[in-house]
Backbone:
């Protein structure tokens, strides 16, 4: 099963312009996924009010055993933010996932770990 998971930077960009539904429609999904760490990041902003109104956003918790997943470069991974780490781990547990993120370093690490990853440039010409 394919899932679309969003990092905080990507999520907040689309929340700001009130076009998150465009992502859902573009990928033909019934729901989009964010991890608890990404949700916490957004909850520290005014955008949380917009996010909690959207019923088709599913907040997924990353279980502790997920941190044992084999990664290509754990040192680089450890330098990422919590939302990026949790999202990459979630994608590793769900190999058909699509990870939407703008951060170049995190996107590169995800790509090296065989995760389908896209940034703004993929969706916005």
Residues:
């Amino acid at each position: 099963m394919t899932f679309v998971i969003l990092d905080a930077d990507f999520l907040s960009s689309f929340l700001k312009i009130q076009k998150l539904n465009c992502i859902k429609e573009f990928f033909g999904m019934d729901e989009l996924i964010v991890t608890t760490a990404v949700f916490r990041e957004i909850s520290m902003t005014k955008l949380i009010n917009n996010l909690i109104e959207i019923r088709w956003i599913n907040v997924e918790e990353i279980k502790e055993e997920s941190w044992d997943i084999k990664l290509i470069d754990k040192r680089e991974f450890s330098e990422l933010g919590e939302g990026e780490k949790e999202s990459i781990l979630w994608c590793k547990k769900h190999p058909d996932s699509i990870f939407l993120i703008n951060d170049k370093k995190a996107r590169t690490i995800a790509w090296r770990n065989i995760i389908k990853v896209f940034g703004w440039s993929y969706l916005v010409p």
